[in-house]
Design goal:
This protein is mainly beta. The chain contains 1 helix and 13 strands, in the order αβββββββββββββ. It folds into 2 domains: 83 residues, Immunoglobulin-like (Sandwich); 66 residues, no CATH class. Helix content is 12%, strand content 42%. The strands form 4 sheets. Strands 2-9-8-4-6 form a 5-stranded mixed β-sheet, with no helix packed on it. A 4-stranded antiparallel β-sheet has the order 1-3-7-5, with no helix packed on it. A two-stranded antiparallel sheet has the order 10-13. A hairpin with a 2-residue loop joins β8 and β9. The longest helix is centred in the N-terminal third of the chain and has 23 residues.
Length: 186
């Protein structure tokens, strides 16, 4: 009877060790990780945002490669849409880019974040124009104008007359009283 009890206890001990050993082996399916799209575009302004999608069957982390943008999620599990937001305006007229690195297990994927350059501000040229005192109906001419730019005659910083839309060629302000004017692009 002792032998049977001893064998039964031994059998239970071997079975318990087998289950314990199996319990320590993690059941880890092969991790998969994909990001889409591989490049996201942001407008030039502060707060501009766009998204990319993480497709994963496990835990992942996100690391930003620049301080001018941030991502909505630093880590997660399984699939997720992540928002990338510009934290500052691009001061250059040239686009800037950096990377977001997504890592799951031993797999790393990169998303390029590109922020558009600021729009070029047309160069403002200021001219002092003089007319004879008391003369009326003075014509102020511009030898060329930039299409899509508005021009205004100013007297002591205040608009005088009507605004003139640039046409890409010469233009003139007519019927403005004689004073000293400057002409900045609006």
């Amino acid at each position: 009877m002792r032998i049977i009890t001893l064998l039964r206890n031994l059998l239970f001990a071997v079975a318990a060790l087998s289950f314990t050993a199996c319990g320590n082996d993690p059941i880890d399916p092969e991790i998969t990780l994909e990001v889409s799209p591989a490049k996201v575009l942001l407008e030039s302004g502060d707060g501009a945002s766009n998204t990319f999608e993480i497709t994963c069957n496990g835990a992942w982390t996100v690391t930003e490669g620049a301080d001018w943008f941030e991502s909505s999620d630093g880590s997660g599990v399984n699939d997720k849409v992540v928002t990338v937001t510009a934290t500052s305006e691009n001061p250059s007229t040239e686009p800037r880019s950096a990377s977001v690195t997504v890592k799951a297990g031993d797999i790393t994927r990169t998303v390029t974040v590109e922020q558009a350059g600021a729009e070029e501000t047309p160069e403002i040229e200021i001219y002092d124009l003089e007319a004879d005192a008391g003369t009326e109906g003075v014509v102020f001419s511009l030898s060329d104008t930039q299409e899509g730019v508005s021009y205004t005659l100013l007297y002591e910083g205040e608009p005088v007359g009507t605004e003139l839309e640039g046409t890409g060629s010469a233009a003139q302000f007519e019927g403005n009283p004689a004073k000293v004017y400057t002409r900045p692009a609006a």
